[in-house]
Amino acid sequence: MGYMLEIQDVHKTFNAGTINEKVALNGVNLNLNPGDFVTIIGGNGAGKSTTLNAIAGVWSIDAGKIVIDGVDITKLSEHKRAAFLGRVFQDPMTGTAATMSIEENMAIAARRGQRRGLGWGITKKEKESLKTLDLGLEDRLSSKVGLLSGGQRQAITLLMASLKKPKLLLLDEHTAALDPKTAAKVLELTVKIVEEEKLTAMMVTHNMKDALRIGNRLIMLHNGNIILDLSKEEKQNMEVSDLLKMFERASGEEMDNDRMLLG
Question: What is the value of pTM for the model shown?
Fold first, then answer.
């Protein structure tokens, strides 16, 4: 079985040749097996979101190659890459259309990439999937999404992103804007969906406790490079303090704790 994701020597520099030049990705190499659930940590500017944006095609990379399930997507547009990907952003307001109902939002997600037909609405199976959120939303299908709480919207966004069983689910600090109790609930749902649907997922987080606890792999970025890549076995008995020490050894620097929430 081949890799689900291959990132080969990817480089990205913003504002090249100017006083504001920033090397965001400096030869990143990463292979994910089908079903890998990878947590991604690193300080501000380390390259976490930039890596996800490179995969999603938000902008073109300067050099390198990105392959999803054997398909070279390096030169595909962001729109065409969407067929391979599901994504949840930090802001709960960005993943859903506020003026549309829950049912309409779900229907759009469920039929992404298909021609619009007369069969508007969601199936019984898709309605049942709302029940898994345990938020009572299956009884509020006609409610406008804009009337829901941030946690409810993010839960729906997560469900929408995974409905079509994407090749790769990208989670960009998707619980950071929620209150602690709601964040824990959405994170619990995330683990449940990824495991039950056997998805391959990458989750950027600033919470090192969550990074150690969740998924089967942890990578740390620093200055646009992957400096740590830990398996489930390597990280399962680690504490945050151990991770900080490993960062210092790998980077030659001390972690700026103001830039990395310890959770």
Answer: 0.91
Calculate the alpha carbon distances from 151 to 69, 93, 251 in Å.
32, 10, 36
Question: What percent of the chain is predicted at pLDDT more than 90?
Answer: 62
Classified as helix, coil or strand, 135 is coil
- Rounded Cα distance between 197 and 60, Å, is 30
Residues present in the chain in total: 263
Quick check: 244 pLDDT over 60?
yes
pLDDT tens, position by position, 119-130: 556 677 777 778
CB 203 within 8 A of CB 214: yes
- Tokens coding 257: 């704790």
State pLDDT tens for residues 17-71.
Answer: 899 999 999 999 999 999 999 999 998 889 999 999 999 999 899 999 999 999 9
What is d(CA 243, CA 238) in angstroms, rounded to the nearest whole number? 7
Tokens of 213: 């606890």
- Please give the Cα distance from 28 to 7 (Å, whole number): 7
Residue whose pair of structure tokens reads 């829901």 in the numeric block = 148
In whole angstroms, what is the distance from residue 120 CA to residue 110 CA?
10
- Contact status, residue 29 vs residue 226, Cβ threshold 8 Å: yes
H helices of the chain, in order, are 48-56, 78-81, 102-110, 124-131, 150-162, 180-196, 208-213, 232-235, 240-251
Cα separation, 253 vs 243, whole angstroms: 13
